[in-house]
């Protein structure tokens, strides 16, 4: 399985992927009850030998519910009626997940607000303060 980015290409060997075929849930009638078309694809991100260390750390740092505490990515695909299409779908989703870790996030450059922005903020605060002050001084008796 190949995953390509603009500057990096990763090929994941079949030995690192674990596929399990299970019965799908949801509508589908008799076909759902008798054919195991859903695919559960497991990929051990934490122990993978093909992923660079930086990519592995970025993928494990993501707060993704599909990644277990042991660092295993579990993708279940049951969108299609056939096992082969679900298998392709699971692999495409795995490729998309790994592709997100290939590019390093651009660091944020700290900036300061302009003088005009500071002035607008203070004017808005002054105006809001005035509105609240007029509400508070009402004598209701």
TrEMBL record:
InterPro entries assigned: Pep_chain_release_fac_I
Keywords: Hydrolase
Domain Prokaryotic-type class I peptide chain release factors: 23-39
Pfam families to which the protein is assigned, alphabetical: RF-1
Region Disordered: start-end pairs: 104-141
Molecular functions (GO terms): hydrolase activity
Name under which the protein is recorded: Alternative ribosome rescue aminoacyl-tRNA hydrolase ArfB
Name of the encoding gene: arfB
């Amino acid at each position: 399985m190949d995953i390509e980015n603009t500057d990096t290409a990763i090929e994941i060997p079949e030995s690192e992927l674990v596929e399990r075929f299970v019965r799908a849930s949801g509508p589908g009638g008799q076909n759902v009850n008798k054919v195991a078309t859903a695919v559960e694809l497991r990929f051990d991100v934490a122990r993978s030998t093909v992923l660079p260390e930086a990519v592995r750390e970025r993928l494990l740092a993501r707060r993704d519910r599909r990644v277990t505490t042991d660092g295993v990515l579990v993708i279940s695909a049951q969108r299609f009626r056939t096992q082969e299409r679900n298998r392709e779908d699971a692999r495409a989703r795995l490729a998309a997940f790994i592709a997100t870790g290939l590019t390093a996030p651009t660091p944020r450059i700290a900036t300061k607000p302009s003088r005009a922005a500071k002035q607008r903020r203070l004017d808005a605060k002054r105006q809001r303060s005035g509105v609240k002050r007029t509400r508070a001084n009402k004598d209701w008796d």
